[in-house]
């Protein structure tokens, strides 16, 4: 499946904005991404195995915060990270 990577996390993917990953659930896809790009999952998932508050994940056009959401190889996963500043 295609996974769209937000700009703040592209340092993990050699600046690639779209990468390929595999899995049956969002959690599986994130685990596969972490195998390919070590450290990426930690930036997205906290110690309680929940998406960090500033992270958003869409499967196709649908927002999900549930890591057990089932995905297919034809789906597209989009990762967004809220930015803050001041």
The major sheet is characterized as: 5 strands, mixed
End-to-end distance: 36 Å
Spatial strand sequence of the major β-sheet: 2-1-5-3-4
Number of domains: 1
What shape does the CA trace take? Answer: globular
- Which architecture name does CATH use? Roll
H/E series, N to C?
EEHHEEE
CATH level 1 name:
Alpha Beta
Radius of gyration: 12 Å
> What average pLDDT do the residues reach?
95
Description:
The protein is of the alpha+beta class. 19% of the residues lie in helices and 23% in strands. It has one domain (2-81): Ubiquitin-like (UB roll). It has helices at 26-36, 40-44; strands at residues 2-4, 18-20, 55-59, 62-64, 76-81. The protein is globular, with a radius of gyration of 12 Å. It starts with a strand and ends in a 5-residue tail after the last strand. The model has no long low-confidence stretch (mean pLDDT 95).
Helix-strand layout with pairing:
Layout: E1 2-4, E2 18-20, H1 26-36, H2 40-44, E3 55-59, E4 62-64, E5 76-81
Parallel strand pairs: 1-5
Antiparallel strand pairs: 1-2, 3-4, 3-5
Which characteristics define this entry?
single chain; 86 residues; alpha+beta; Ubiquitin-like (UB roll); 2 helices
Compose a concise summary of this entry:
The chain has helices at residues 26-36, 40-44; strands at residues 2-4, 18-20, 55-59, 62-64, 76-81. With 86 residues, the protein is α+β, with helices and mostly antiparallel strands. The model has no long low-confidence stretch (mean pLDDT 95).
